[in-house]
What does this fold into?
Amino acid sequence: MTVAVARSPLRSLLAHPVIAVVITLAGLAAGLVAAALLPATHTAEARLAVVSATNNAYTIPGYPLAARELAADYARWVHNRATDGQWLPQGATNVQASPIPDSAVIRVEVEAGTPDEAVAGAAQVADTLVTTVREAHAQHDPEGAYAAWRRQAPAVAAARTAVQQAETVYGRAVAGNTTTAQVRAATTALQNARVRFAELELRQSAAEALYRRLYADTQGVSTLRQIAPAVTVGDPARSAFMRYGLVGAVAGGLLALVCAVLLDRRRARPAAHGASPSSPHVPPTPESTDTVEMVDASTTGRDPASGPVRARESTPPPQTGEHPASTIGRRLGAKSR
It folds into this structure.
């Protein structure tokens, strides 16, 4: 009976090298053709960095770590504005911004159909981010708060002097030989001078507090600066050929594996159906010679030196279909000889 042994898929593929090579090369060629026909996507990149805006930036404890976090915030800002379409340049298909690990540098990437559109889009996004950060920085600039404090300083000093003068007049009016109306007038002037001084001092104190807060604010002492202009990065044609070629080769290899397995199964099926059923087992015919069974002499009481004793003679069974009389005649003839 013929038994078909099933091969493993890998053995089937190795048993048909021509099929494997041809289909894999066909898949590779299909991937290369698809890479050549599909439109290429060009990427341009611009780099920005969070830098100190004043000399006192590095005197703030933890400023380098805070600058990295600020760069990550700016990158998320770009991503959010590009997602809602506000910062999506014309002709661009994708805008991404990400901070470079362990640094305060931001990478702005723009994808477009042509290199010029990609470069123009990356430059536009970078400029928009720098301008927006500068506008926000104006609200966090400690120098502005200091300038406001300086503008209020003369008025505060004059108000303080007015209070001192009003106190002197009030003291003379109370101590001297003056009328009640003059005392009331001096009292009113002193009160007005003190109210005016309190208002101006409050404004100056607010400007001072704002200056102290912004002086230690990372965003206030930092600004965004472009450190690398927008340029195209990578080779889109080469990457497309490599990507689609690899995908086509892998798909061709899988298809070749399937074809090899199916071909082996198809060949094994006729062999399994064409096998003839096994014939019944026929026991071998014993020889026609008598079988002599030897018995040990010690068991019969004879001298061992005389050799073994022939115990009996056995005759093979008659052949199938042989008459018993013919068997008896053959035995008598053997004895007569």
Notes: Residues 142-215 form one domain. Residues 136 and 313 are 124 Å apart (CA to CA).
